[in-house]
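Q: Start with the shorter request: fold the first protein.
A: Done. Sequence, then structure:
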Amino acid sequence: MAKLAFLSDIHLSSQNPLCRKDDLREVQWLKLAQVYSRAIEDKAKAVVVAGDFVDVACSWTLLPKLANFLNSQRGKIETLAVFGQHDTYMYDATGRKKTIVGSLAEAGLIRVLGEEPLRLDNWADGWSVYGASYGQQPPKPGKGSCVLVIHAPISNQELWAGQNYFDAKKYLAEHPGYKLIVCGDIHRSFDISLGSRRIINTGPLLRRKADEADQQPHFYTLSLVDETIKKISIDFSAAEDVISREHLERERAYDKLIESMQTPQQASLDSSTEIKFSDTLNEVAAANRQKITPSVVRLLSAITGVTLEETKRADSKQKAAAKAGRSSHVGDDRTQPKGQSKNPQRTAGKTSGRSKS
């Protein structure tokens, strides 16, 4: 019985997240291996990733490790994917071929889904899979049973005030040509039905943030024969054993400190108060008089177009020093014995020159 396995937002990384007590850089490969192993056990022909396969689009550390892993799966199961924003360097779609996912696609280790359907007739008649990477519109599906894999902010609920997202049930209703829509990007799991059609999000495979502590890693498989969808869980440790919240307390304390520094200043301002950039810059320059050299002060003046008081002060000091230097030279001339050179080295040179001739 041919099947497809779906998951999203793996976010493989070479950095250990702040919230992890263990080393997720090692754990992530065990989790990924478990997904592929259980997908193979369930007769899946391919693992399909709905974007954000990696956390950073380009990494010389991560690329060979992922390449070795996917190469070890060759002949057992295929890997299909769309690009998430984390898979896309600087969110620039034109440079995707130079990323980790793009490089692995060029090497034949990943098949990137897109507007042209991937026909699954060799696995099951009449099935096609389409893809929409981050920033792309979903393609218009053809006939037969169609699956859309998309990386976009599709959610079953608002996760924070003012969040801009597509409502999952409405999105499913607006795309009736797809029997199944698999979405990534929003790190929340949901499974919504509309008649015989469904839209699913597995949520993140790895708990990289403290607010994901309650996430239970899993993936779905779709039977291409009887169209059943099954949820398969992945082994995971209790949140209290691997997730720390200490950094959240530090962040909250920092936010309060910043707020306390800003509030008095904001409270003292009213509509009649005028803040001048030149005044502020002068204050900064004066406060750092011992640290900022006159050349830096002049550079600030040139860049900002503001004549700083510190510039005037530095110029005055320079003029005074120059004047004092001239006075010193004049005094030296007056005390010089008549007929003696002011430059002994030049005199010595001339003498030595005459002696040689």
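Q: Next, the second protein, separately.
A: Sequence, then structure:
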Amino acid sequence: MKRISLFVAPLVALALAITYSKALRAADAPAAATGSVSVTVSDKDGKPVEGATVRITQPKTAAGKTEKSEPKLADDTKPAAGKNAAIAEGKTDKDGKAKLENIAAGDYNLAANLKGVGNARQKITVKAGETLDVALKLAPRANAK
């Protein structure tokens, strides 16, 4: 019996130590640094716009590239250089509201548009653990002739 306890006791202690260390590491892991953006879209008369597309994209630098651009690999399936991929995208509800969540903290461009109504853009800064409230008013695009 003594031999068994000499063998089992260290194994139990080792199992407890491993279990405790994994639980401790999970509790110590920092929370993701994300925030949310709550957008209200209205038309030129101030009425809510339903069905508008709301999109968050990386801001462009002076050279026309996004700030967080990565080297392009031969097998990349990312959008072409002229297209700025959306970080988050959504549609407004009947009250003209859309909420975009889990956005990494940082500076972005926010755009809203609806064909036949207009578009709007604004630079935003998302802060970790906070919800940014933004109101956008769609304006018809001027016809260039």
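Q: Describe the second briefly.
A: Residues 11 and 17 are 10 Å apart (CA to CA). The helical segments are 2-28.
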